[in-house]
Amino acid sequence: MSLTVAIIGRPNVGKSTLFNRLVGKKLALVDDTPGVTRDWRAAPARLAGIDLTVIDTAGLEEAFDDSLEARMRKQTERAIEEADVALLLIDARAGVTPLDHHFAAWLRKGNTPIILLANKCEGRAGAPGLYEAFELGLGEPVPISAEHGEGLAELVEALLPYAPPEEVEPEDDDGAAGGTADGKPEPVRAIQLAIVGRPNVGKSTLLNSLVGEDRVLTGPEAGMTRDAISVEWTYKDRPIRLVDTAGIRRRARVDDKLEKLAVADALRVIRLAQVVVLVVDADAILDHQDLTIARMVLDEGRALVIAVNKWDIVTDRAGTLKQIDDKLQAQLAQVRGIPVVTMSALRKQKLDGLLDAVFNIYEVWNRRVSTADLNRWLAGMTEAHPPPAVEGRRIKIRYMTQVKARPPTFALWVSKPLDLPETYIRYMVNGLRDALDLPGVPIRMLTRKGKNPYAED
Fold first, then answer.
1. Which helix (H) or strand (E) segment is 240 a member of?
2. 208 known member of a binding site
3. Domain of 34, in residue numbers
4. Is the dihedral of CA 251, 257, 263, 265 positive or negative?
5. Which of 44, 134, 206, 299 has its CA 20 to 30 A from that of 449?
6. What confidence tier does 186 reach under pLDDT thresholds 50, 70, 90?
C-alpha cells in the first residue's frame, strides 16, 4: 500500500517543483508564472522507504463562481478528499499571506491531516516566514527547499505517523518470498493511450466521458490543458493508462512560453505512448495541423486511431466520411488502413467503438510474423516483380526476418542495400501490409548487406 499525499497551496509557492522532486522526474510543468498547473496529477514515488502516491494540484484561489479559477479549486478539493495527508506549502520568503491564513482555516475544518511546509528556506531569507508560519495553527512548520532538495529528511519524519504498515511477503514451502509461486497469473500491463489534437477539439471531454467523472478541467476556453494528465483506468478487464495532452497548434502560432512547454510535454507523451487517439473536430476535419500531428505520431512508430468528435452535429455524414477517406489517401498514403471512428465525447456516443478500435490496432502493432512465412511471401513478391538491375547486375534479396514489433520492423538482406530504390521498398511494405494483415500501423523496412545470416556455411 502507498500513502497518498496531496501538495496544496496558493499559486506560485513551488508545488510542482516539490512534486517533481518527490517523484524524481520532471513530470509537471514549472514556471514563474502563477497558475501554470490547472488539473491535479498523480505519480508514484518512494521516499526513504515510504511508498507514496504524490498529487500535484492547482493553486488555491478564493473563487466560488463558474470561472476557470473556481473549477480549478473544485479539482483541488477532490484531490484533498482522496489524499491520506495533505502538504500545505507556503513561500517562506514571501511570508504568510492573508490567502495562506484563509486556506489554513478552511483546511482545519476538514478531515484530511495537514502537514505545513515552509518552502524556499535555503539560506537566511526564509527564516522570518518560517517563524510566521506558526500563526496558521497547523503545528510546527517543516522547513524545506523543493528546488534544492533540502529538508526531505524532516519531511519523511513528519510523514511517518501516517505511513501504512509494511506488508510482509508470504513465504513458500522453501521459506523464500512468494512472487508468482502461488500460481497467480502475471498482471496484464496497461496500454499507454495518449489523446492528442488541436486545441478545443474535445480531448479533455473525451477523457472525462471515458472514465465517467470530471477528472480534468473542461470548458469553452481554448488551451485549458497544459500538463499532460495521466489517469489509470480499466475497460473490459483491460488496464489502460489514459493521458490527456495540451492542444498542439501550428509551430508558427506558438509564441507563449507556457504553451511551448505544454506542446513539448504533449510531444513527449506521444513518444512514450503505444496507441495515440487523434481527436479531430467534425467542423474542420483533418486540416493541415491534424495531418501534421498524424505524421508526427506515425514517424514515432506509434499506432494511430482518428476520432472524429462532435459527429452528432454533422448533417452530410456520407460526404464527410468520403472527405476523410480522400485526405487520408492523398496525405497519409504510406500507412493505409488507419482506423477512423466517429463519436460524440460530450454525449458519450460510440465510445465503445473507439476503444474497440484502440484494442484492435494495438494487437496489429504488436503482431509478429514467422520467418518461414515471411520468406515464402518474399519469394512470391520478388518473382512477381524482381528488384531492378544496377550497372547491369540485378539486385538480389536473399533473406527476410522480423527484428521487432511495436511497430512491426523487418530486415532484408540485400546484395546492394544502398542501391535498392525507395519505390521498391514501398512496394514491399504495401505488399506486406496486404498479405499479412497489417493495416493502419507504420511498418519499418531495414536493409542489410550480406548473405542469409542463418544459412549454414
1. strand 238-244
2. no
3. 3-162
4. positive
5. 299
6. low
